[in-house]
Amino acid sequence: MRNVMAQQDTDQQRAGVLPVDDEGYVIDTEDCEEREAAWREKGTSRPITVVGNPVLHKECQDVTDFGDDFQQLVADMFASQRTAEGVGLAANQIGVDAKVFVYDCPDDEGVRHTGVVCNPKLVELPAEKRRLDDSNEGCLSVPTAYAPLARPDYAEVTGQDEKGNPIKVRGTGYFARCLQHETDHLYGYLYIDRLSKRERKDALRQMAENEPRYPVVAND
């Protein structure tokens, strides 16, 4: 017999935007094309904010109002993400001080994940689950630059969906990296902040030497 409280929790989560699996994690792999297109078509693409802009270097404000203006922000984020050919985008990357990111990202098996996470918190992993992957990482806010960065190859994030319902998201491989990277953004960290001084300098050199392939906001 299932725990009554657990049943109520599960029923509450099933009222959210996405269905959840038996462990309460969102199923973000269904209807990805249709969901992403529906958001994107309602949105207006905005230029990407780049390293040096103050909004990228401080913790964002929690999302508390999930009304029409917020829904438009999410739509604009999906539109901006597609224009920049990104797999994840945090609100401060289009200059908005709000703790939300969107994603449209494959995992290492090529399975597509699409969703919205507000007020995310990374779940601390036990040591036995921490296997590091030192693949290359890039960022729309550090255009044209890449550097290897070791991160756990599995990640879990708790937060809320675009309507304010509690959610849990988990991912492996490239998608795990995306969840960690985007959550970092909302707490004021860029991936280059996790590099050595030499590697950070090299990433900024790459950025300076190349032209971004999408519109960016120039820093004064």
From TrEMBL:
It catalyses: N-terminal N-formyl-L-methionyl-[peptide] + H2O = N-terminal L-methionyl-[peptide] + formate. The active site is at E182. The keyword Iron applies. Fe cation binds at C139, H181, H185. InterPro entries: Peptide_deformylase, Peptide_deformylase_sf. Gene3D superfamilies: Peptide deformylase. Keywords: Hydrolase, Iron, Metal-binding, Protein biosynthesis. Its cofactor is Fe(2+). It holds the Pfam family Pep_deformylase. SUPFAM superfamilies: Peptide deformylase (SSF56420). It is an enzyme of class 3 (hydrolase). The keyword Mitochondrion does not apply. Binds 1 Fe(2+) ion. Belongs to the polypeptide deformylase family. HAMAP family: Pep_deformylase (MF_00163). This is Peptide deformylase. It comes from Streptomyces djakartensis.
